[in-house]
Amino acid sequence: MDRGSVLNWIRTLEKLLSTRIATFxxxxxxxxxxxxxxxxxDYLADLRDQISAxxxxxxxxxxxxxxxxxxxYADFRQFPNFHATFEDNASVIYRELTEAAKExx
Length: 105
Prior knowledge:
105 residues; 2 strands; two-stranded antiparallel sheet; mainly alpha; globular
């Protein structure tokens, strides 16, 4: 996700969840259920929603990163060596949202 679009990931997960597929085989980690996929979607959507609200208020990244509420996902594995942490994912979303805001007339 660090080089891709998290917003696109959210849309892709929504499309997958709209199917009748019951088991998902990711490129990393264990085979997952619909519940696993839904939770991952909810995590990314939660990050997006928190950051989007702050971007709309023109809150700085420095302030946002210190006020993310990720307690609900405390059991998620994080891999700092691969830049896969809550803050890393949030920074990608922040970048996407702020770049999109600059592109709007």
